[in-house]
Amino acid sequence: MNKSDKQLFRLPPFRFWALILLLSAPLLMAPKTVKVTAGGRVTQVHGQANVKKGNLVKPGQKVTTGSNGRVELTFSDGSRLRIGPASQILLISDDPAKKQTLARLDKGRIWNQVRPAPQKKMVVRTRHSVAAVLGTTYEVQITAKSTQTAVFKGNVGIHRPFDNIPETGTQELFNETPVSLHATPLPQQGTGAPKQIESPVHEVPAPMKVIPGPVQVSLEQWLQIVENQQITMGEDGKAEVLTIDPVQKRKTDPWVQWNTQMDAQPARME
Fold it and tell me: From CA 12, how far away is CA 103, in angstroms rounded?
C-alpha cells in the first residue's frame, strides 16, 4: 500500500463517501436504454371485461367488454383507446418505432385520443370503413349495417374497406393511408374523380373534404371528416355526413361525457 492509499483511508468518513459519490456520478448519470413495448397497457377497467388493470394487450389479442364494461388502453406514446360497453376490438399490430398502430373494431364502440407526432398513424378497420388518424380525438361505433365515426377534435381520413388487403397485410394498409390529412379543394357536387397513381411511385391521393349530406364514396378516394362532423358508412358504399353538437352530445350521451372527462386527465402508463 503506497502513501496515497494510506491518506485515502485516513479521510474522515463523510469526506470518504463524498469522494466515492463524486467518482461514481458519471455512471449514475449515464443515459439508460428503455425498451418500448408494443401493445397497449390496460390503465382503466370498469365493469365486465376480459382484461385486468395492468395487463399488456399485445398485437393479436382481443379486448371484450360486457354490457356494463369499459376499458382504457394506453400506448407507449401516450395515445389512449377506450372500449365501450358490449364491445370487442382486436389489436392487429403496434409498432412504436414506426409509430403505427392498427386495430379492428368488431362490435360496439371505441373512443380514440391519438397524440399527434411526426409520421404517427393509427388506423381502425371495421367491415364498413377504414379510419386513419394522425392525431385527434374521435369515436367509432359499429352496427350490423353501418359504421359511424364522429370527430370531436382534429380530423380523420375515412375510406371504404380495402377488401384487396388481407388482415396480415399491415404495412400494405399503412402504405395506402395518407401522409397528411390536408384536404384537396372540394368540388361543387361533393365528390370528385380520384387522382391517378403513377407507377412505380406510390402516391396516395389527399383526402377530399366533404360537406354535410349524402356522399357516394369511391373505391380510391379518402374523405376528410373534420371537427364536429360525423360520417355513417353503409355496406353499399354510400355515406351520410352530419354536423354534430359536442355540447349536446356530452349532455345526452354518458359515454361521450365520461370520455371527455377522461381526456382531461393526464395519460398514465400504470
Answer: 63
